[in-house]
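chain below, 160 aa
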Amino acid sequence: MLSGVADTMRASSWRRQMAQFVQMLHVIAMALAVWKGLGIVTNSESPVVVVLSGSMEPAFHRGDLLFLTMGSKPIEVGEITVYSVPGTEIPIVHRVTETRPNPKKKHGQLLLTKGDNNHGDDIMLYKGPRWIRDDQIVGRVQGYVDMSLTVTDSFPMLAT
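prediction:
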């Protein structure tokens, strides 16, 4: 009698674990679908990024979430962009300080950027070229969520 109950419990436990595993796969698939959908809607390979440094303070702080889009209009001075530098994995969030036409690409642009909290421009970050190309832009910042407010709301002792 006890062995029958144990077998039933094992079978039930196995079914429950499989159901939880399938539910977890559904959650992962939905998250991936939402991410890919956002990428298509915003025309950006990375529609949401997290600020990793203080170089854009006071505009953005570490941990802030930035929402990006990629428009077809030329990038203008003053826009905040996220760009990739060849040889680095982490994209950089900085403001465009100067633009010029790219002589090697019709309708292309060359951009000079700078972090709001940095003393000089980003030429040292570009690893060789003096300008970044517009095809290195991952996205233009369209909005953000200030995550420091979320943390200080959750942990009031950190607000001081």
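The longest helix spans residues 2-42. The mean pLDDT is 84.
thats it, cya
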